[in-house]
Amino acid sequence: MNNVPDSAVSAATTARPNHDREFVHRILAARQPSEIEAIRSAAEQTLLEHCGDSVRLRGLIEFSNRCVSDCHYCGIRRSNRTLKRYTLTLDEIVGAALWCAQKGYGSVVLQSGERRDARFVRFVSEAVTAIKATTRSEKLPQGVGITLCVGEQTPETYAAWFAAGAHRYLLRIESSSPALFARLHPVNQRYASRVGCLKTLKSLGYRVGTGVLIGVPGQTLDDLVDDLLFFRDIGADMIGMGPYIPHEQAVLPGSEPLADTAMRLQLTLSMIAATRLLLPDINIAATTALQVLTPDGREQGLRYGANVIMPQATPPHARHLYTLYEGKPCLHDSAEQCAGCLDRRIREQGRKMLKDSWGDSALSPLSVRAVPR
Ligand code: SAM
Fold it and tell me: Which residues line ligand 1 (CB under 6 A)?
């Protein structure tokens, strides 16, 4: 294993698809600090060569915590009856997006719990249309880029939102292992349906993001290897993945122990590095959940090859109600405070913010290879 770092560098530049499984397995299995540092450095170098040193920003607007789904791991799951539910008004959503545009964030993410009723579908269309109209400027002639993260929907709904102006969609597969997926969700939430949604989104022309939970009790290294190959085969344009963090109202079934914080942090960072080395051109987020494990978690994510950050833009009165997991950071900071803090944190990593740009990655084709399983 001593020469993993060298092979990591060379394999990243020669891209041998048949060896991808072995390649990413060796990255995830690395435990020696010197091996890990060499992998990190190779991932960072690959990022700088393929995507440059700018960090792309997507202002995160968590516009509703109402949810019809019941994912076992999620704090806003339907059966959490202790949570006060909210939906932002159209004006609040558009105001938050306009603030992002004025800050130079070229893109926003509209995220919420899952609903599929006609009123909700219309509301999201209206929000997208209004954000586009309001954020057009000389610097952003087509308004901010809009990513939706609103779960599984019908093809018609995805098409309507695309027509309204959203051009990216983030839908995590959560785990590419059908068995683990089934343990994480109630029986009516199906793996095949999630994969079908990703393919539909891709065929409609969206830039498609996916991702997984890392460090779920019972998850194996091979599961994570399969996740990376899934990202490759589904033709992901972006990846947003993060550590699993418990929530007391969302207890996972089973009695497998939870890996400690250091282990989940390193696994997440190694997954970021492996993704960057396997898929050099795509956008990878350093997600907020990393910051829960350690205060500089997102900065570490950037150093391991991530190039996207999603600064908080949810109005503070709602932010504390969008609690997917325990320990959500920056609950009481204003969006303005978050922006100042972020600018400093990014510059301290020797990186710069990409301002007034959508910050898309090169488009990944829908792979001709079959998605595993
Ligand atoms: N309902 C939509 C969906 O499923 O895509 C969007 C919102 S969902 C709350 C956003 C993401 O939060 C999920 O994809 C999930 O991975 C993440 N999440 C939920 N609970 C979590 C937890 N306990 N730890 C870490 N991430 C979690």
Answer: 73-74, 76, 111, 113-114, 149-151, 171-172, 174, 213, 242, 244-245, 247, 289, 324-325
